[in-house]
């Protein structure tokens, strides 16, 4: 019953999107949901980042059309874009599970109740489902956190620290974490902490897109070079 208003809100948002004039989610071109050049720009090119012992794979760089498409999905109710972003998550997940010695469970980073009320859907879960993956919602948000976007690296870490809890049943599982956008890695680190506190082992992370480090406010410039993750 709790899910009913959410489902109705999501259905209304989708119905409204059908009535409004459509524009390309990547570049704003009118009359098409996603134009051919933007579709090409969303072709995945997996890369990885070492987040202090947690290897995070991404299918796209969070820039240009990919950033606009993700914002359309996250902020403008464009749930149709999830299908176009699904190959990026599928490829990053494929890289993340390569070499795993036993079956892994795909666990999405949890969506806060406030974000769920605002959107009516969970972005990582939706993209995962469009990629043919059935995510296991083993993480829950246990306290309200501030908006990460306005914060620097250290502030992001303290903002989310201790904000998640793993549900019963996580113990003993090998997990790959899934999220939409990787920025500093603070959210993935908290998700990993919560799962490992519950007895799971986080083997890697897979995201749709990774933010170039120069956008994060680290004070470093030209720091897009990645450590080798292989
Ligand atoms: Zn376009």
How is this structure best described in words?
This protein is of the alpha/beta class and 230 residues long. It has one domain (3-215): Rossmann fold (3-Layer(aba) Sandwich). It has helices at residues 3-19, 36-41, 64-75, 81-97, 113-119, 123-130, 153-160, 186-197; strands at residues 47-50, 55-61, 105-108, 139-141, 164-166, 174-182, 201-210. The strands form two sheets. The chain has a five-stranded mixed β-sheet. A hairpin with a 4-residue loop joins β1 and β2. α4 crosses α6 (123-130) and α7 runs parallel beside α8. The longest helix is centred in the first third of the chain and has 17 residues, at 3-19. The N and C termini lie far apart (46 Å). The model is unreliable at 215-227 (pLDDT under 50). The structure holds zinc ion. Zinc ion binds at residues 24, 26-27, 29, 35, 37-38. Zinc ion (ZN) binds at residues 24, 26-27, 29, 35, 37-38.
| CATH fold-level name | Rossmann fold
> Rough shape?
globular
Domain count, please report it: 1
Q: SSE string, helix = H, strand = E?
A: HHEEHHEHHEHEEHE
SSE class: alpha/beta
Major beta sheet, specifics? 5 strands, mixed
End-to-end Cα distance, whole Å, is 46 Å
Average pLDDT figure = 87
**CATH uppermost class:** Alpha Beta
- Radius of gyration of CA atoms, rounded to a whole number: 17 Å
CATH architecture type: 3-Layer(aba) Sandwich
- Stretches where pLDDT is under 50 for at least 5 consecutive residues are 215-227
- Strand order across the largest sheet: 1-2-7-6-3
Bound ligands, each once = zinc ion
The number of distinct β-strands equals 7
Structure annotation, total helices? 8
| Percent range of helical residues | 25-40%
Taken as a percent bin, the fraction of beta residues is 15-25%
